[in-house]
Design a protein that fits this description.
heterodimer, A: mainly alpha, two-stranded antiparallel sheet, 2 strands, 78% helix, B: 306 residues, mainly alpha, two-stranded antiparallel ribbon, 71% helix
Amino acid sequence: MSNKAFAAVAFVVALALAVASQLITNEYFFTAGYTVLLFVILATAWNILGGYTGYVNFGSAAFFAIGAYTTVALYNAFKAPLAVMIVSGTLVAGLAGLGLGYLTLRLRGVFFAIASLALAVVLYVFVVNWDFVGGARGAYILQPREVPFGMPRYIHLIYSVQLLMAALALVVARATERSTLGRGLAAIRDDELAAECSGVPTLRLKIFSAMMSCALMGMAGTTFPYYLSYVEPSSAFSLSYAVNSIAMPLIGGMMSWIGPLIGAVLLGTVQQLVQVTVSSAWNLLIVGALLVLFVTLAPNGIMGWVEARRRRKEH
Amino acid sequence: MSGRLTVFRPRLFPRMEIPTALLANAIIAGLLLGGFYAAVSVGVSISFGMLDVVNIAHPAFIILGSYIAYIVNDRLGFDPIVVSLALSPLFFLLGTAIYRVYYLCFERRGQESLRGLAFFFGILFITEVALVLVFGVDYRMVSTRYSDVTWRAGEVDFPMRLVVPFLVSMAMVVGVQLLLTRTFFGRAVLAVAQDQLALRLMGVNPVRVKELAFGLSIATAGVAGAFLIVIQPVQPAIGREFIGLAFAVCVLGGMGSIWGTLLGAFVLGIAESFTSTFFGPSWAPAVSFGLLLATLAFKPSGLLGR
């Protein structure tokens, strides 16, 4: 399927899902669905740098929070419309990824990983000290009273927007994977030195993929302040975003765009169930344990396992 | 993440003039803090700098050490630092076991770069969540005879809860350096850092050497955990702040150099102490990241790096 056809299919499916789910009367569905979709975007975005290029980003929460706090800042400044917030949050997070990548991607991959983890701590400190966006107390964001498209509540709109953004993230990831860029990234992942020697502009490709990945993470965060009408630093910078966005691609499979999608839907749904039935601390423990189990026992994830089975059948 | 070291209370003083007493206090507090940071980072210096094992879960073992010291202190009243030194063999064994898993699952297959990192990240996360489930998110602290004692020399304060960890930490760092340079095992560790193949040709198994050295690095984490809970109250989530810190110290000092790590720890300690004195303690965690980025951008080999 060509990229254009895939994009058309993805957006039509997303729209159809958005319209169809308006029939659901249970409010909880939208809350849970929003969270799962958020993880779909984060996991897909993480995989662009992590899965395709082989560079680990531990700072998903930082980029997510950049998106969320751009929304808060724009809301406090002049109550910008949602579309403006989404675009600016994406851009700011992309710029942050560009800067971090420019400084650290020229060194060994592990430095990028450590710097991304440290970035989350520093941005957290920065936001806590920044009174304009509420500081440590957090910020309240009022949902507009009138919801467009005749939807009954604002969460319906946020959910539908998140669906479209998830479709966009998947389209971008798939297009990247199948382009010259994607082949360059795969070459870097498999052997960076050999790639450099064969004329792949490794640094430029790495920085570009870091920027794209971080921009998409920021995009996922832009609607977050509207989700609960309230953000505070420790929920926006929660380590669970970082863990989930690594665990989901690893569990689903990192080689193609479909792996993070499977991982996010599976793990996201399981988490929603555990959160309701048991508790949120146990829920995080399960994610961590699954991450360690998969990475040690099934390093290629669910898709890797499916692939291996299919190959065995052919022979 | 709000439980940052509140060692130095910022005092009100006119912005224009900086009293010498304040300056002297900031330097002393920075040095004492640097001694603690050296204990936090020396293990990372071994695992990351020498063995090339990127153990980002190191702070999780520090927090684990804090909680073990806390339990023993709470139930039996023993001194946390003595407890941690007595229990360091357990941490050593834990370290060797973790390295074994890491080697079998990642290093042997050449997958350490991505999946190994994810593995340690998972361990960090599991430890934190498990501690939250057992102890909750309340801050825990220990009581020792020297907790509330402060020596004063002129106008300079020497709080004992910083001095005691500082002294033990210095002894530990010097001990590690002696162990690494004066013994056969230590030289084997340094050799692993340089050329594993040559080591094999000499009839030494590099995996065994790395296993023991990794155990040593986790043992130092356990002791550093006891220092931490003597210095400040501890809750499970504060471990994350030390990830950036420990790696910043290692990179700043120069990879694989214990003296470099010590120097880096003092530089960071003083930089943080000045930041908290003159800008407010809430900014201190940003210092290590700034130093890390600056080092990576301008001098990736660090201060004393080879």
